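Hi C.,

You asked whether I'd gotten around to modeling the 72-residue construct. I have! Everything is below, sequence then structure, no commentary in between.
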Amino acid sequence: MKFGISQYFKPTPRKIRTAADAIVAAATFGGTMIVLNGNPKVGTAIFIIGVVAKFISNLFAENEKKQTSKSK
């Protein structure tokens, strides 16, 4: 698994993408509940954590597999 800014536009591994989506969903739900309970600063911080987690997940990429072509 590769990690770096140059990997941003390459496909993200499925496990990393799933974990990041779960973190974003939990941060969205938790942040909303905290904002509705009257603490907007903490809710906003939780939203930001979710966005950062999703951005970091896009920096991972799968290792490229070498394709061998056999000519006949």
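If it helps when you're writing up: The mean pLDDT is 88.

Thanks,
B.
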